[in-house]
Each structure stands twice: as C-alpha cells, then as structure tokens.
C-alpha cells in the first residue's frame, strides 16, 4: 500500500546513492520487504529479454500474483510502465502514512490520491499478508498514551502474545494477520479480526471506531465476494496512478535498485 509516491514508477526500489536518499529507507517504508525477490525476477527477465520489462511492471505483477497465491483475487493489469529516474525520499516522509499514524491521516492522504473511503478501507485488507516491526507497535502494547500499560481495547490473547514477542526481541517483526484471528481466506480473516479487537496496528483497529468505516469492515468480514471485487478494483486503480509511459519519460532499468548508467 505504500509504494505509490509519484505513482507506480518503481522509485521505491532504488537504493540510496551519493546523489540522493532512498524512499525505501524512510520511516513509512521501514517494514517493506521483498526487494531481493524483485531483483531476482528482473535478473531472470534480463537474461531472456533485456531492457523490455520495467521494474514497475514487475512490481505490480508480483503484487498481484502474491495476492492470488495467498487466496486473494486475480485481476487484470495493463503493462508498459517505465521506471523513475530518481527516488523521492522527502515526499515519502511527507505523504506516505506511517504505521503509527492515526486513521484520519490515512484517509486524508489516500483521498489526496483520489482513493475513496470505501477503497481505502478495502485496501487495508492487504494486511492479510505482511509484518510490522515491533518499533511501530511497542508503545501500544507497553505504554499506551503514556499510561505504562497496553491499550485496554486489545483482545487479551493478542495483547499477551504480541507484547511478549516484542519485549523479548525489540528487533522482531510481528505478523499483521491479527493474532488469534481465523487464518484462512485472504481479506475476510483480517476484517473479522478487526471486529474482535485483534488488530496489531492501532490505525487498523481505528477502522472500527467510526460507523463510516466500521460498516465497510463488517461488510468485508461477512462477504468475501464483495471484498474480492472491491479489492481488485482498488488495486487496479492504484497500479494506474502516475504511470510513466513513452520514451520521453523514465527508463527501463537493467537493475531495479539503480538507474541505468
């Protein structure tokens, strides 16, 4: 959900150089993983058809296929994107919601990209997969609002398991699949976990605090068909944001972590 600063241009894949900082190193992107997998795919493609398939296309197709292999929907995507010539570190800090941000910040920043409230709630279902670093949740599980205690709204089993893991290893990552929630079915178990106060991230659980978002959480928790359709449409919309096309814009990198020399 976070690789979108100037659109789907692969800028988040670039490593830092002497000339610029990298998006991937900024706090909102600190939990991102899988860069090595993208490089492996690119290497295979370059050996067969060099400088034909962009890193941006690889990224959206890999995301789509990982969703499908996890039990989510398969959706059609257009290809032909080109790769950004630079990374946007400061924009990442300013415009990407961080895991510790309140829900209103997520809704506002997604709205700036013309992503509706319904689409935003649906895209939270991507948290069916992935992990978050303990750094981003330790305050909620150990010192919520400066009380010295965990957030009292967290389901006890989720609270005890997550707090124990992060206290024993502050560098650990915690699964986003809501500790104790049903573990089958892309999307539906995530939203069912929210209904049961099983969310690891406070911003996720805040989806239940307002009826305007909670109504969609309950809809997706009870109807996998609605979620699958909405998620497919929202992901297609994200993949079409700010695409670079044509020879005058961007390039097709030979290595996803660096621009061509």
Automatic annotation (TrEMBL):
InterPro entries: Haem_peroxidase, Haem_peroxidase_sf, Peroxidase_pln, Secretory_peroxidase
Residue sites binding Ca(2+) per the record: 7, 9, 11, 23
Cofactor(s) the protein requires to work: Ca(2+); heme b
Signal peptide positions on this chain: none
Cofactor comment: Binds 2 calcium ions per subunit. Binds 1 heme b (iron(II)-protoporphyrin IX) group per subunit.
Residues that bind substrate: 97
GO biological process terms, semicolon-separated: hydrogen peroxide catabolic process; response to oxidative stress
SUPFAM superfamilies per UniProt: Heme-dependent peroxidases (SSF48113)
Keywords, sorted A to Z: Calcium, Disulfide bond, Heme, Iron, Metal-binding, Oxidoreductase, Peroxidase
The keyword Iron is annotated on this UniProt entry: yes
Domain Plant heme peroxidase family profile: 1-260
Family: Belongs to the peroxidase family.
Name by which UniProt lists this protein: Plant heme peroxidase family profile domain-containing protein
